[in-house]
Write a structure and sequence with these properties.
Length: 594
């Protein structure tokens, strides 16, 4: 073992010995992942292009953890630009330092590696990870992130015969750098070139629309068995309708909360959203079956090629699938059907989530609202000669120094705590305005979408109760129609054009948390902000301080030491796991006899 690698191991050992008292009281297991993020060449739609792979795979392998596990992900940046990985829906309790967006983390420079270390505290469900900078998600780098219940917690359905991960999303054959340049030049991205399912193009269901030689996804199943399908829309900006020919989709969970179970023949999944369906293989096997993800709210005659098609293959299938695709909803220019479907997604109040107490034991409808923010979204506008997207007239500019890092080092002027709680009568502007949210508050956020497309909004660090949706402008009277009993709790919600969506949030997780459009074009153009939530009586128990390996940038760049990039300076995943396991065994003995 080289001297530099030995030094790094010693440093890790000393760091963890310093945390001995904490480890002696924390018995939750660790899971380890080593992510080498790099470019590979792939041709998902028949055109060779550069995509982002995790350990040479596109999409990346799933992260599999259990409630309260400690997750360690060592990320090696093999790209030619800065990188951050974010873990959409993972709440990072007390620990926004691991969230992986520019308001919380300095970027990982090219050729460097950085280790994320976080606990998936009190969470279960279906999520995904992806690179958060520079439009990189449009090139890949994503994968499923699922959290299992502890064995002592019953799930509200029979144990499935298997877990199947399905990542759907619109796709462009232009590289993410070209898409970025188009937006910088004030251009619209235009219609995507297709839809991928698990990183692959469509099955050739139509020889006119799908050329020869496209590699497609096949999902292999056994007759009579029931599988849990975890479906994620990881695309750029297109809402997709998901369906499986002749099979019902029994909705069971979304983004960490169990739902009231009900069957659907097809289901709309908007950008950034994740759902779990129970699907029973109860059809005859005269042939295979289509799995389809098609674009919503578009002119289908023009958008026909923007359709993802995979194959569901029974082990006793007698032949390939053929014929027309199963029908999509016939409401291309009327999203009312989709809104009605969204309102049927309700929380299973009697089921246990991550804890044994029922999900419905938190009576959110009886809590007084402490603050209301009405966030108005309009089509992109020109600000300072550039096309920008805004919320309440603020097109967000990421601070050079991450928010809580600036606070810890008392950096003045790194950001502003003046984000308006409603749209103001003034010209839109670029700014570093952040929401000054109150710790332990219970706030209402209304997304008013006056844009022309469906938007999805996501909040890091939290789940929120989606209590209402409606067309027109939200008013105080709209509260009369809120669902105050079994609204679904999730972290990403759709907002239909010309409509509003209202959510309620209990602010019990201190830190700086990104509130953003999951539509990559709008996010890139500035449609985001942060909630800064600080316990005024902080004593180290409600929010962690910066980790020992924190990266420095902006006003603190002089504190950052250069990282050696030779092969001897990093620990391989297997070496790290072995070393850490031995270290943990040593700590266990010490804790037993101390």
């Amino acid at each position: 073992m080289g001297a530099s690698r030995l030094s790094l191991l010693v440093l890790v050992a000393l760091t963890h010995i310093a945390l001995l008292s904490t480890l002696c009281s924390a018995a939750d297991p660790y899971v380890f992942y080593d992510f080498k993020v790099s470019y590979i060449t792939a041709s998902p739609l028949g055109v060779p292009q550069r995509v982002i792979a995790i350990n040479g795979k596109f999409p990346g392998d799933p992260i599999n953890a259990t409630t309260n596990n400690n997750v360690i992900v060592n990320v090696h940046n093999g790209l030619d630009e800065d990188l951050l990985m974010t873990w959409s829906g993972i709440q990072m309790r007390r620990n926004s330092w691991q969230d992986g967006v520019l308001g919380t983390n300095c970027p990982i420079p090219k050729t460097w590696n950085w280790t994320y270390n976080f606990q998936v505290k009190d969470q279960i469900g279906s999520f995904f990870y992806f690179p958060s900078l520079n439009f990189q998600r449009a090139a890949g780098g994503f994968g499923s992130f699922h959290l299992n219940n502890r064995e002592v917690i019953d799930i509200p359905f029979a144990k499935p015969d298997g877990d199947i991960f399905i990542m759907i999303g619109d796709w462009y054959t232009r590289n993410h750098t070209a898409l970025r340049m188009a937006l910088d030049a004030g251009k619209d991205l235009g219609m995507p070139d297709g839809v991928l399912i698990n990183g692959k193009g469509p099955y050739q269901y139509n020889k006119t629309l799908v050329p020869d030689g496209i590699q497609y996804e096949t999902i292999n199943v056994e007759p009579g068995k029931t599988y849990r399908l975890r479906v994620h829309n990881v695309g750029v900006s297109t809402s997709l309708n998901f369906r499986i020919q002749n099979h019902n989709l029994l909705l069971a969970e979304t983004e960490g909360h169990y739902t009231i179970q009900q069957n659907y023949t097809n289901f709309d999944i908007h950008v950034g959203q994740s759902y779990s369906f129970l699907v029973t293989m109860d059809q005859n096997a005269s042939s295979d079956y289509y799995i389809v993800a098609s674009a919503r709210f578009v002119n289908e005659s023009i958008w026909q090629r923007v359709t993802g098609v995979a194959v569901l293959h029974y082990s006793n299938s007698k032949g390939p699938v053929s014929g027309p695709l199963p029908d999509a909803p016939k409401d291309a220019f009327d999203p009312q059907w989709s809104m009605n479907q969204a309102l049927t997604v309700r929380q299973n109040g009697s089921a246990s989530g991550a804890r044994p107490n029922p999900q419905g034991s938190f009576h959110y409808g009886q809590i007084n609202i402490t603050d209301t923010y009405v966030l108005k979204i309009v089509p992109p506008v020109t600000i300072d000669g550039k096309l920008r997207a805004a919320i309440n007239g603020i097109s967000f500019v990421n601070p050079q120094t991450p928010i809580r890092l600036a606070d810890q080092h008392k950096i003045k002027g790194a950001y502003k705590l003046d984000f308006p709680n409603m749209s103001l009568s003034r010209l839109p502007r670029r700014d570093m305005s952040v929401i000054n949210a109150t710790y332990k508050g219970f706030i209402e956020i209304v997304f008013q979408n006056n844009d022309t497309t469906v938007q999805t909004f996501h909040l890091d660090g939290y789940s929120f109760f989606v209590v209402g949706m409606g067309y027109g402008n939200w008013t105080v009277d709209s509260k009369n129609n809120y669902n105050k009993w079994d609204a679904i709790s999730r972290c990403t919600t759709q907002v239909f054009p010309g409509a509003w969506t209202a959510v309620l949030i209990s602010l019990d997780n201190p830190g700086a948390w990104n509130l953003r459009s999951q539509n990559l074009d709008r996010w890139y153009l500035g449609q985001e902000t942060y909630l800064r939530i600080v316990n005024p009586e902080e004593n180290g128990e409600t929010e962690f301080t910066a980790p020992d390996n924190v990266l420095y940038c902006g006003a603190l760049a002089n504190l950052q030491k250069q990282q050696k990039t030779s092969s001897a300076s990093s620990i391989s995943s297997e070496t790290f796991k072995l070393f850490f396991s031995l270290l943990m065994a040593f700590f266990t003995l010490v804790c037993t006899f101390r």
